Structures are given as structure tokens and as C-alpha cells.
Amino acid sequence: MSVILTRGSQYLAEVMSVVSVTSVNSLQASIAQAERLVQQDQSRVNQDASRLEQSQQLLVKDKQDLAQTQAQSRQAQQPVPAAAPLIRLDKAIENPPLSQQKLPAELTLAKPQINARGETLGRLINITA
Questions:
Q1: Which of 1, 47, 80, 100 could covalently link to 96 via disulfide, CB atoms 3.0 to 4.6 Å apart?
Q2: Which pTM value belongs to this model?
């Protein structure tokens, strides 16, 4: 019986080695396929992330455009302010009578005094020139 068991275990070992070589090859092929799928999925994730970033940037720009358009719309809907009253230029400058027109004191100079010969007092007049 031990001979049978020995031969049976040898047969079983041979079968197991054939099965394990086949299983290892199958596992290696499965792993290689899984790695390819992971790489493809990672590529898709990167592309999706890029598209998401572009979409977010476009959304921000669209929100800014919308806010600007709404502000312009609100400004356009405001009532137009009333026009300023017309100014009559003929009444814009006052012309008081001459009796009321006076220059400030610092602008009025004292009139020079003239002696009998027509000379201004207080100043030297050079008549020999």
C-alpha cells in the first residue's frame, strides 16, 4: 500500500507541477491584462481631470460674464436722471451799476501827487535823458 501511495503522490506531484505551470502562465497573462486596463483607466482619469479643469475655468469665466451682464442690465434699467435746468448766459454774469463797482483795496493804488511843475512828488523824474 505504501508503494501505491508513493506512486500516487509522485503522480499527484507531477499533475500539480503541470497545473501550477499552467496556473502561473494564466495568472501572468491575467496580471498583464489587468495592468493594461489600469493604465488605460489611468489615462482616462487624467483626460477627465483635464476636461474638468477646463470646464471649471470656463464656468468661472461664464460667471464673471453673467455678473457683468447683470450689472449692465441693472444700470440700464435705472431711471434716467432729470436734465439739469438750462442756464441763461445773458444772466450768468452780473453787471452792477458803476457806482457799486469797487476794486479791492489792495488793487487800488493811491494816485500820485503832482507838483506845480508837473513832477510826481516822492519820485525822481529824469528830464535830461
A1: 100
A2: 0.41
Cell numbers for 17:
507541477
Contacts of 113 (CB under 8 A, 6+ apart): 120, 121, 122
Interval 47-84: pLDDT, tens: 999 999 999 999 999 999 999 999 999 888 888 778 88
Rounded to 5°, angle at Cα 22 from 38 and 26: 10
For residue 40, the model assigns a pLDDT of 94
**pLDDT digits over 20-51, tens only?**
667 778 888 888 999 999 999 999 999 999 99
| C-alpha span between 4 and 52 (Å, rounded) | 69
Query: What secondary structure does DSSP assign to the chain, as a single string?
Result: -HHHHHHHHHHHHHHHHHHHHHHHHHHHHHHHHHHHHHHHHHHHHHHHHHHHHHHHHHHHHHHHHHHHHHHHHHHHHSPPPPPPPP--GGGTS----GGG----GGGPPPPPPB-TTSPBTTS------
Set of cell numbers at residue 23: 496556473
